[in-house]
Amino acid sequence: MMISTITSKRHDFDGSSVPGSSFKELSLSSVKVKSPMKTIRNRRWLVAVVGLLASTALIVTVGSVVILFAIHPSTTTSNTTCFTAPSPQPSNAWFSVGNMSTPRYLHASTFISQDNGILITGGLDGTAGLASTERYIPSTGCFRMSSGMSSVRYYHSADAMTSLSSWVVIAGGLTSATISSTADLYDPITETIITINLAFPVYAHSSTKLNEWQLVLIGGVTTTGYVSTGEVLRVGSPSAFISALNTVPVGIVWHTATQLYNNSYLALIVGGTDGSSYYSTVSLYQGTSDTFISLAPAVLLSTPRAYHTATYLSYPINQVLIAGGLSNSVTVLNTFALFDINNIKFVTITATMVTSRYFHTATLLPNGKILVIGGANAVVLSSCELIDPANNFISTSVASLNIARYRHTATLISSSGNGTVLICGGVTFSSVVINSCEIYIA
Question: Where are the transmembrane segments (predicted)?
Fold first, then answer.
């Protein structure tokens, strides 16, 4: 097993400094929460149709639902081109595209099916939290600003829901001074936002779609400490978040929660930390009953992990590959763990990554391979590798990033068909937060 020992300072949610400034990320003891708005669970939504004048911003409140209308740069056109793919198109190559308008990390990135673009939301710029959003336009390789969120958000989640016409659910997070108790529903067509309540305030959680009508937030931090339960959004009339009915064994952050697909309505929750201990626990979340099922003590990771990745591999493989992460506060892993869904247990895997890493990303490509990007160990990494599940999970080095980074986002541009991945932002050398983005062509 290859390991690396961290000697550089990690930037975590536990009170360490934000890169590039004297701004302090909030410790749990310093976080306060605003009084939550009345739940809309039993309310019907009233749809308001409002005409907009140019250069106008308008907020309409209907009960406890806030609708934000804003004029944004999408109303104008631009002939600017920031990136044109070479012809003939290469493979295994990284290309720089247009920069985001501001440096970001702890942001979220979501594929928008309507125009095959990418929505970037919130984050920290190294000085302060961000409420801004922007969209990547594949036809030009540029970014443009979009409607701002209802508040600053970082350590949040953002998921597109097909049953909501692919609206993006931007949930929870920190708002600089409080833990958010709301979610913004972003309409990718009109770029308007509706704000609804969470069941309870949360940040640093995981988010997983169990199906196109059900989204679950698991773990994280709330006003009383680390969260050992979840809250689920059911799309309907009304659409509302409710709390799960039980808990996982411990309150956790930096775990993974992975949808098991094939209409199973299950998510696999692996590892995590509470800021001091690292866990080997494994649980399932069952969407049909809103309950957690602990698999301990029969099923445990062989090595505790946090800050790892988890990738579901569909039939006929039907397994989840866990990669890298930390096993304690200083030991970075290059090992895998392989969870077999048919047998509900971990199975033997001898392959490893080329490089130990955490705070990396892992993206499943259309060809069935997994692209592992960047991250950190004792240094910030530009290296990438490609894992081949069809060849005993052998991992090989591929083209490196132009700019080393960790805590970035990586999003598959689904319409590409050739395995195009967009990465954005993150932290590079000297703890500098960056606004650069790159495209990988497989």
Answer: 45-71
| Residue predicted with more confidence, 256 or 87 | 256
Can you tell me which residue has the tokens 């932002």? 425
Q: What is the pLDDT of residues 85-125, one digit of tens each?
A: 888 888 899 999 999 999 999 999 999 999 999 999 999 99
Q: Tokens at residue 288, please?
A: 């049909």
Is 45 among the domain residues? no
Question: SS3 of 74, please?
Answer: helix
Rounded to whole angstroms, the Cα distance separating 289 from 286 reads 6
Closest CA to 256 of 221, 203, 317, 308: 308
- Per the structure, the count of domains in the chain is 1
Report d(CA 394, CA 169) in Å as an integer.
36
d(CA 394, CA 341): 21
Q: Using one digit for the tens of pLDDT, what is the confidence trace for 274-328?
A: 999 999 999 999 999 999 999 999 999 999 999 999 999 999 999 999 999 999 9
Residue 314 lies in a domain: yes
Is 28 a domain residue? no
- Mean pLDDT of the chain, nearest integer: 85
Q: Which two tokens stand for residue 315?
A: 């039939």
Distance, CA of 69 to CA of 192 (rounded, Å): 5
Q: Going along 282-426, which residue ranges are E strands?
A: 282-286, 291-294, 309-313, 319-323, 331-333, 336-340, 345-347, 361-364, 370-373, 384-388, 394-398, 409-412, 420-424
> How do residues 24-37 score in pLDDT, each as one tens digit?
333 322 222 222 22
Q: Which domain holds residue 344?
A: 93-441
Can you give the pLDDT at residue 39? 31
- At 28 the three-state DSSP class reads helix
Report the C-alpha gap between 59 and 44 in whole angstroms.
Answer: 19
pTM summary value: 0.85
Question: Cα separation of 53 and 51, whole Å?
Answer: 7
Q: Is residue 295 within 8 Å of residue 284, measured between CB atoms?
A: yes
Residue 15 lies in a domain: no
The type of residue at 372 is V
Query: How far is the C-alpha of 262 from the C-alpha of 165, rounded, in Å?
Result: 21
Domain containing residue 157: CATH number: 2.120.10.80
